[in-house]
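To close the chapter, one final illustration. This time we ask the reader to focus less on the individual chains and more on the assembly as a whole: which components sit near each other, and how the overall shape emerges from the parts.
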Amino acid sequence: MSAYWKTNQRRLAPWLFLAPGMIMFAVYVIIPIFQSMWLSFYDWDGLGAKTWIGTANYVELFDDEAFTKSLKNNVLWLVLFMLAVPIGLFMAIFLNQTVRGIRIYKSLFFFPFVISQVVVGLIFSWFYAPNFGLLYQVIEFFTGTGIAVLADEDYVNYGIIAAGLWPQIAYVMILYLTGLNNVAADQIEAARLDGAKGWKMLWYVIIPQLRPATFIAVVVTVIGALRSFDLVSVMTTGGPYGSSRVLSYYMYEQALSEYGYRMGYGAAIAVVLFAIMMIFISGFIWKMWRDETER
Amino acid sequence: MFPRPIEQTSRSTQIMYKVALPIALFIWLFPLLGVALTSLRPASDLAQGNYFGMPSSIAFENYADVFRNSAIGQYILNSFKLTIPVVIGVVALSTMTGFALGIYKFRGCMAVFFIFVAGNFVPFQILMVPVRDMTVNLGLINTTAGLGLFHIAFQTGFCTLFMRNFIKGLPFELIEAARVEGVSEIKIFWYIVVPLMRPAIAALSVLVFTFIWNEYFWATVLTTSASIQPVTAGLNSLNGQYVAQWQLVSAGSIIAALPPVLMFFLMQKHFIAGLTMGAVK
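The assembled structure is written out below.
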């Protein structure tokens, strides 16, 4: 036994070290993905027997207005969340100085990211609250009538997305601050000697060097947009009249909340969300794979 | 350095910048300041419509009230009971997986690595029904262990990526030298690699602590009772319970946010190093 180990340990050791992590990850992450896909072809209340219904869950999705609305909201989230990238970049540029106390400023600007989304949701609910909420009062001051953002079907999504952007911008900002710290100084000096400055400098010299930071910023922003569950749950629970539902929240509602225990239907919604996410994931993985194999 | 250092600009630009900084920060943190102020406002102020003016007195009793009249003390304790073992578990597992993927070249090495990376991006909802079902079957529903096991498994994805990239940056000659000396692979891991990984372990611990402390979705799916639920889920039910008592909700929010905020300010360097990994090459 020990002789076998001695001669083969270089071959066995990696699997030995991988085993605990791999088993846990397989049991809790990889296998459940396939179980959900399988479950999406069944009708199941979570307790009784499962009934095979083929693609009926998916067919139902087509005519489900709540589903279409959630899907549309997810697209809105994705598009508007992308604003975090340019805004974060400009905040990083604004803060990339060496004046006294700047380190404290940087940490305080980053602050929203450290707070739980539940707390962020509560903070913004207070900010938007009808009658006494600060935003309500400001709008009332300028236009005469306040807007209860979270109770208005037209504004509710923008209200929640703005709350989500707050920590997301902070995250992107810190990525770009790190990136800006590592921009090659000699290239900037050379470009300055050639007369580049301002926007031209930013576009042709700085942004190309920030590409790794931009990649990570886009990845975390896409994931953040599609994972948007906490804020919807805390701020509106999908309302008013389901107008702020997103797929992640609608799935939870169908499968686990008081609205019913339709596990199969919930699984079908989750599969759709997963498919959307897969488009992005495969893109990210493809790029990372290329970087890894190039070196 | 980009943009041009402010010291090299005109005197008036420098003054403008120094004035703009605190104003921008004030606007940026405005909602938070509002909540902090509300948490210190006596209930009578809110009843009289004094939401934004000077508080008539500083009401620390709001904080005492939240502790007295709600389970927030219990929620905070639950969060610690959940978060600390998860941090230890994740660091242990991912140090090993990161070591295996960073040091050895073997068949399937890249495939295993990318499964960890990709799994880390999936939407939680596709895991929800099977993971909840499994937790019920194991008899672990509504227990700290049931929730913690899931977190350990899921966080291993991101942490493996992190640890593996860190180990790739270590001097490989050290390990080769040890092998020539006949040191076993397990001893190499324990006596050579783990001590070198201290900065990575510190960074990951801070990050995972914050992630788990702030996590909400799984807390609502896998736990239900106030004796088990972490503070994020607890805070949400508190919000339902204290309708229109914003001074108490605000105080509760501030209490719940405090541990990760302290962690961040104490371990800032590690925290940011962990978050921005990969932002530079």
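The radius of gyration of chain A is 24 Å. The longest strand of chain A covers residues 42-43. With these observations in hand, you are ready for the problems at the end of the chapter.
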